[in-house]
UniProtKB/TrEMBL annotation:
GO cellular component: plasma membrane
Superkingdom field: Eukaryota
Source organism of this protein record: Aromia moschata
Official protein name in the record: Uncharacterized protein
Gene3D superfamilies, sorted: Multidrug efflux transporter AcrB transmembrane domain
GO annotation terms (biological process): cholesterol homeostasis; intestinal cholesterol absorption; sterol transport
Residues passing through the membrane, by range: 7-27, 279-307
Amino acid sequence: MAFPVRCLTIICFTITLILCVLVIPSIEIGLDQELSMPEDSHVFKYFEFMKQLLGVGAPVYWVTKGSIDYFDPDIRNKACGSVGCNKDSITTQIYIASTQSNITYIAAQANSWLDDFKDWSDTEKCCKYFKSNTSFCPHTMMSTVCESCYYSLIQEQENITRDQYYKKYLPHFLNDNPDTTCAKGGHASYAGGITYISDDNGETLIIASNVMAYHTVTKTSKDFIEALKYARNIGKNLTDTLNIPGVEIFPYSVFYVFYEQYLTIWQSALESLSYSLSLVLGITFIVTGFDAFSALIITFTVTMIVVHLLGMMWLWNITLNAVSVVNLVMISQNTIQTMAQHVER
């Protein structure tokens, strides 16, 4: 190859290399779910209808892991969302996030079981227990069989605080089905989301609980990934708000398990390519008769090829995912033989 051609080749290669490095951060991550099926698939049509007609996204739960005394006034005020609660309470923070749904992907404010429990306990027709054994009685039962146990009445009869009342009658709230007479019954909305144990005195201790809201409609991989990312940010803020050692609040939604990998896909890709290029360097060093210069030249050239491929991914709108990372690693290995032959020449 003539010297001017060599210079021109190096200049062009260097310019394209710089351009590729500049556009690499702009490569989108994710995998279009519609690419994995034929266009006449019923699942493909299902995804299309979801994009066009779906009005709300998947439910998201912020799960509280760890034992918390929600009936302590200070802690309760950090979690509830009604009058008298903290301005930065858990429910309030989720509501604020829902007002910026274009950023947070939260469509509606959270349902607070603490607020509904309070309203339920203050309603005369909701809380009831059987006269015979004081166990839970549905509020639809006749008063001849059951006795009312709303808070004001129990406070007057037993002289207990609201915290003591909550500990005693939480199971009643979670067993009560809502209807037009008592709309705040917690069985339908909260029974499956609160785990508790009762001691010998009939007082309850909450082991785990959650707060539920809804995502906005998520259509693309970017939407799913951003929804997961912001839900985790909210969970971290909620954990800091409670500020209780050993207690963590983390988000969960049905699609998170499929998109968690993309939060660290760049780190995984760089690690995999680093291992691959290190292997290229080691193998070429041995194959070229322990010629360090040739091994470095080959490794550097393979690295530039990988960078150019990343640049082409941006140009052709190919997203970064597990499949493309595997292809990049395979390409870096397959170029060893060609590069070694050119160096030997």
